[in-house]
Amino acid sequence: MVRMVRLVLCALVLYQTTVLASQPEVVLQQGALKGLWAHSAGGRTYAAFYGIPYAKPPQGKNRFKEPVAADPWLGVYNATKEPPKCLQLSFSFMNPPSTLEGSEDCLYLNVFTPRLDTTAADQKPLDVIAFIHGGAFMVGSSTDQGFEKVLDRDIVLVSFNYRLGPLGFFSTGDEAVPGNNGMKDQVLALKWIQQNIAAFGGDPNSVTLAGLSAGAASVHYHVLSPLSKGLFKGAICASGSPLNPWAFAENVREKSFFVAKELGCPAEDSLSMIKCLRRRPADHIVDTSKYFLAWFYNPFSPYGLVVEPPGPNAFLPDSPMNLLKQAKGSDVPIMVTFAKDEGLFPAAAIIIDPQLRNKLKADWNRLLPHLFDYNYTVPCEKRRDEVSQEIRNYYNIDLDSKEGQKNLIRASSDRLFINGIAKAARLHSEINTSPVYLLRFSYSGNYSLASFFGIPDNLGVSHGENLFYILSIKGVDIQWTEADQQVSKQLIDQWISFAANGTLDAQTVNQNLPKITFTDYQGPDQLVPMMVDEMGEEKFWDSLNLKENIESIVPAHREL
Description:
Elements: H1 2-21, E1 25-27, E2 32-34, E3 36-39, E4 45-53, E5 76-78, E6 88-89, E7 100-101, E8 108-113, E9 126-132, E10 145-146, E11 156-160, H2 165-169, H3 181-196, E12 202-212, H4 214-224, E13 234-238, H5 252-262, H6 270-277, H7 282-287, H8 320-325, E14 334-339, H9 344-352, H10 354-362, H11 364-371, H12 381-395, H13 402-431, E15 436-441, E16 472-473, H14 482-501, E17 516-523, E18 526-529, H15 538-543
Parallel strand pairs: 2-5, 9-11, 9-12, 12-13, 13-14, 14-15, 15-17
Antiparallel strand pairs: 1-2, 3-4, 4-8, 6-7, 8-11, 10-16, 17-18
Helix pairs in contact: 9-10, 9-13, 11-12
């Protein structure tokens, strides 16, 4: 009997070893794929497929055009290597961009699934999370974050690249290049998910979008866009909104013609300009982005979304504010999260670097409009100076005192993140029948995301901090405390519940839920209800009458 048990165990071990040694394979309409076996944070085996092409390379004649679906391939596609980043300026928190990285051929996606056997009759397809990376529409990639903790659960996860900077968000303001091609890349990726995710064990009818920073703003834009309707059933927006000043571009036509002149292309008309720019090296085009970073790396998002000329392919047919007020877009459950001290990015770099701090002190009126991104939305120089002083006085910003430095972080948090995030959430709650959840993350654990950038922990809970407990950072092995682990579990529980049910409490959506709930997450099992009437000093910022989030911005390009 003992010998029989040993033989059975040996056979099981041999079978598992053989299965794990073979590569996972999936057959799609495009062709067959082979991927890798990998292990989640808890040791669960899942299949990983990297670098699946969802669009043709946006090069040559396809540059500055809407994406075109990728062709089928012959044989078995090797989906075992991470795809290249989309071409971008390299970024360091403490240094302005100086070099380039990535490739123009970059429109690939990755799929991670714990279940490939889709034939069993009793197996329900898994919920799907499609994650959109951040990076101010300028930098980042689909593999910046690791998903090992989330993949402990029954979920299929997809991440994808999209064109960035001028290659993704260049616009002539007319039909030549209407703009928002990076967002149309995302739409094509979401359509790919609808067509193919069932082969990976996922449910195309249960796709939830999630994103961080510019990825969160992207998710929210998909909620508003007519091109994205029907491609998802819920939205998780972490630290980003279309109503943030950096998420909506100004002076796009002037910027485009400036790039053309820098690269020796005619700027008399849009078509001649674009024809010439398609022949210029892609890295030369991306390198011109430096000209729009007036101070350090600010404004950190010179390229972003624009309102497009009317047409069936317009991703953004009106300003985000108008679309919100007109109840346009998808009525889906929305979970909006942000960190207590979002403005540590970018204010912390100034606080911990005496040279940057002294520069801002000496040239406050000129530099603050770039740091707080209103240089183009207050066209009169005299009024810009007045606005800069009103901000300084209202927040009592004193760069020579610790308290005054924290006030800079608070002003940065409100201006660049919290005001727009809270306003968008409230407006959605007024027009949605689906629930809207607004969560502030105030927990400060044993480690912080800020500490990896050299920022002292006592400055606060930084931009992206909540996702620090949900996703992982490449090459960083962290020894979490018991409380940190509990926080991680609870935040992942929220994501998984929301992906399944559209709520945070594992219950299905019902009409008795309040239109909007606002809670402050302070630690394990500490969800404190809060009011949502005004956040981010909304009345103060509205009183400045900044000409933002409107269809077009008139002032001419100014030399930086």
